[in-house]
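Render this sequence as a predicted structure.
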Amino acid sequence: MEKLNIEERAIELLRTVFDPEIPVNVYDLGLIYRIELKDDNTWLDIDMTLTAPSCPAADFIVEDVRQKLETIEGLKRVDVNLVFEPEWTKDMMTEEARMELGFM
């Protein structure tokens, strides 16, 4: 699978991952900071954050991201790195997410 197709598929899958307390997916919430393909497009490296460092669903969300991304054909490795800098703000959400949550 080509790099662009893997990245597009990754975004498609990330849009199926939800924080159980928020009705918007992690991608549109702006929680995904970096998607990088390495090693001949067989290693996907993701930086993501949470809406709050003390999120009780953190382990569930990170594992859901990892499991879904591991289904992408051709990948041999998926690393999901939980980062807290820069700190997440509602300004990182897509316009659709802000509308869904009543921030517009």
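Summary. The chain is about 30% helix and 20% strand. The CA atoms of residues 63 and 80 lie 9 Å apart.
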